[in-house]
Every structure is written in C-alpha cells, then in structure tokens.
Amino acid sequence: MVQMISPKILFKHCYGKYAIAAVNVFTMEQIHGLFSAAEYSNTPIIVQITPASRNYAHAEMLMAMVNTAAKIYTKTIFALHLDHGIEEHIFDAINNNYTSVMIDASHDDFETNVKRTRAVVNKAHKKKIAVEAELGVLSGVEDDMDIDVSKAFYTNPQQAKEFVERTACDSLAIAVGTSHGAYKFNGGKGLQLHILKEIQQQLPGYPLVLHGSSSVNKNDVAEINKYGGELAENASGVTDEELKEAIGYGICKVNIATDIRLLWAKVHRKFFAEQPELFDPVIPGKEYMKTCKELLINKFEILGAAGKASLIVV
Ligand code: 13P
Fold first, then answer.
1. What pLDDT score does 150 carry?
2. Most buried one in 2, 139, 149, 198, CB count within 10 A?
3. Mutate which of 213, 264, 292 to test ligand 1's pocket (most atoms within 8 Å of Cβ)?
4. Does the CB atom of residue 243 touch ligand 1 within 6 A?
5. Catalytic site residue 83?
6. Ligand 1 mean position to 216 CA, how many Å?
7. Full DSSP string of 61-91
8. What confidence score (pLDDT) does residue 148 get?
9. How far apart are the C-alpha atoms of 237 and 214, rounded to whole Å?
10. Which residue minimizes the CA distance to atom 1 of ligand 1?
11. 47 three-state secondary structure
12. Among the options 83, 104, 170, 259, which is catalytic?
C-alpha cells in the first residue's frame, strides 16, 4: 500500500466536504501521537516539518522518524510537507522525497512573491512535488518570525486569482484574520469568513489553506497557569464552528502547531508539579503521546476527516 501521497490527491478528495489536519512535528512523541491518532481514526493527515524543527531535531532525524512511523502505523495515509520554507530548505526537501513544500514569500511585495513562488513551482513540479504559497500576512509568532498585528494584512481576493494563475501553485495559504500562536484575534476582528468567501468565488474548486488554526483550549491554558505557567488571559483560538464553516469556503488544509505545544506544556507542568521527586522523561512522555493522540482524534472529527483514509484511492 502506498502510504505517502501527494496532498493534491487529498485535496481532490476533501474539497468542500472536510479538511486535512496539517500538524507541525518537532519530536518523537508528537510523531507517535499524530500517526497513532491517524491510524486509530482512519484519517488522512499532513505531517509538517518546518525549518525550525529541522534546526532542532535535524532534517535526517525527522525524515527517519516519519519513515519509521509509516512502518509502525501501516494503515496511515499521509503527505509530508515543508511548512514556511525558504529556498534553501525547499530545494533540500525537493531532493529528499517530501510530497509538498511551502514557499512563504508573503512578506515580500506582490511581484517578488510571484517571482519566488514561480521559481519554486518550476523546480518542484519537475519532480511532481506540490507547492503551497501564501498571499497576505498573518500576525503572531511562528518559529523564528514574530509579526506585529499592525503589519498583518488580509488576502486580496482578486490578487489571489492573479497570483494562482501566474505562479501555478497547487494550493494557497490565505490571511483571513487568524494568526500563529496562542494569542489570535488580538486585533479584535476575528475570522473574516466574508473575505474567505470572496476568495473562493475568485478561485472556485481551488484548495485553500488556513494557517493559525489552533483552537487554544481554555482548559489547557488554565491548567498551564495553575501549575506555574504565565500565559495571558487573552489566549484564544479558532472555534470548531469557524473551522467547519471555513471548509465550506474551500479550506482543505488546516495547520495546527500551538494546540499540541500547549498540551505539551500542560502535561509536563502538571506532572512535575504533582510529582516533584520524579525526573524520568519516559513517564510524562507517555502521557503526552496518549493525550496528543486523543487531542488529534478529536480534531480530525471536528474537521470531518475521521474515517476517510481508507476511501482515498491512490
Ligand atoms: P497555530 O499556531 O494556530 O497552531 O498555527 C500553526 C500554523 O499555521 C503552522 O503553519
């Protein structure tokens, strides 16, 4: 059975009906959590590696872990994606069998974004690797970037159409009010579904990507703070209802990183606060893998993706 497939196959299957969770992984525990959730709930997934995770765990280590996870969880169907790439990492990923890459030139002016994206598309498509690009700027903290709310701007729907036509990118990440990290909607405006709708009207049937999609569970934030954390009260994320509505407007890929990071902080803070005499990483590590699996199974259900992996014909 072919397990690692192009996200283009996944998007064709899910468009307008459900969305694929694209989960950023940095550690073995997160990879176990993600693959075991996917296998348990028969859900197609996108495994996301970022330049920062490659810098942390090493690109080879991550690749080996993903390949090994596929051998352990033999029923999983997944795409392997480089999130927020720059050319150096993208060309390495293209040569190392990723099934898709993201070129994030959204901070450049429109023409430069078109030019950089087109150059990546030309290289990637020669190897049948899909390309995600981004138009519009999200605020928030993602890996090494910290974008102030005042510098963020929404995607212009007309420009989105022109951008896709000129670059031939396979999916487009759009800025419609979400932001990376645990403090979304600080600008107070919330998810701009009407802009998303306009983008879909300009690009009917075309797969759109929502970055900054974590829900920032209030209970997790409260637990983190109860056990010594200092997250601000205004931590908040995208609601389940907003995610469901966005799927109807062409969102096929929903990026998640913060939710499993908050969970990590909660599990470990609670564990060591309650059992300060312990120091073995294996015990909280097991708890983290288990709860990560549960969190992701729930996420797949919200996105309508649970039960869909075995229906995908490669
Ligand atoms: P969150 O910070 O909402 O999890 O978003 C992650 C993301 O968009 C990765 O590209």
1. 58
2. 139
3. 213
4. no
5. yes
6. 11
7. HHHHHHHHHHHHSTT--EEEEEEEE-HHHHH
8. 61
9. 6
10. 212
11. strand
12. 83
| Side chain identity, residue 218 | K
Q: Give, using CA atoms, the residue closest to atom 3 of ligand 1.
A: 212
- How far apart are the C-alpha atoms of 54 and 52, rounded to whole Å? 5
Which alpha helices (DSSP H) does 214-302 contain, by range?
Answer: 218-226, 240-248, 258-274, 282-302
The single residue listed with the structure tokens 């596929």 is 70
179 C-beta closer than 6 A to ligand 1: no
- Positive or negative, the CA dihedral 197, 203, 204, 210 is negative
pLDDT at res. 142: 60
pLDDT averages per 10-residue partition of the chain, 314 residues: 95 98 98 98 98 95 98 98 95 95 96 98 98 88 60 89 98 94 80 96 98 96 97 92 97 98 98 97 98 98 98 90
Residue 21 near residue 45 (C-beta atoms within 8 A):
yes
